[in-house]
Amino acid sequence: MKSIVIAITGASAIQLGERSVQLLLENNKNVELILSKGAYEVAKSERNIHIPVEPKSQADFWRNKLCVESGKLTCYRWNDHSASIASGSHKTKGMVIVPCSMGTLGRIASGFSHDLIERCADVHLKENRPLIISPRETPLNLIHIENIKRIAMAGGLIVPPIPAWYTNPQTINDIIDFIVVRIFDSLGEDLDQINRWNGPVK
Ligand SMILES: Cc1cc2nc3c(=O)[nH]c(=O)nc-3n(C[C@H](O)[C@H](O)[C@H](O)COP(=O)(O)O)c2cc1C
Fold first, then answer.
1. How far is CA 184 from CA 18, 58, 82, 191, in A?
2. Regarding predicted confidence, which is higher, 190 or 148?
3. pLDDT in tens, 33-82
4. pLDDT tens, position by position, 172-184
5. Which protein residue's CA is at the shortest distance from atom 21 of ligand 1?
6. Does pTM top 0.90 for this prediction?
């Protein structure tokens, strides 16, 4: 089964990336996961979570934290430039960057390919495979907007982590699930049952 690459970068709300991995594994998917250097920092400062960097320990950490045994999970270091996913010859179904920092967004937009996430995004664009980016910042400056536009024009899909209110969310988890499921709708993956818009309440 072709893998789905998930990248979690150093933007607020890494819970969105975590929940993405959890739902994909629960649905028996093959997940290749990269955390940027910044993501480890945000996990520590925002949530007091210390994520192991070593790939095997990290895969064990996620399986334990997310309580999921199904699916396939492979973790990579952000600076592993010789990883299989750094090459277009390694087939994937697509790549999702959630949440995406403005730093990673800008480097992808300029073709910088400094770390494995940026290289992998570059590969998905050049191979014309789905690249979905969920940028997290507010407010946006003109540089952010220009970078978003550049990626969209190169074939990337921008799916900001914006909740819907018509679902009448009751908890943060409701909001997270809505955002994550809508991101994977864009990749053609049906991950979960969420309340969808079915016309006005009668
Ligand atoms: C707690 C915390 C929250 C942050 N939130 C954001 C954010 O929402 N968006 C953003 O673009 N940068 C955010 N940053 C700054 C990035 O982490 C920083 O620019 C980092 O260099 C990004 O690295 P990366 O793109 O390699 O992940 C945050 C940093 C910290 C410590």
1. 14, 23, 27, 7
2. 148
3. 999 999 999 999 999 999 999 999 999 999 999 999 999 999 999 999 99
4. 999 999 999 999 9
5. 38
6. yes
Separation CA 34–CA 32 (nearest Å): 7
User: Mutation test of ligand 1: which of 8, 9, 12 has the most ligand atoms closer than 8 Å to its C-beta?
Assistant: 12
CA distance 107 to 10: 13
Give the span between the Cα atoms of 72 and 25, in whole angstroms.
7
Burial 134-157 (b: 16+ CB within 10 A, else e): bbbbeeeeeebeebbebbeeeebb
Ligand 1 neighbour 137 (Cβ under 6 A)? yes
Q: How far is the CA of 66 from the centre of ligand 1 (A)?
A: 23
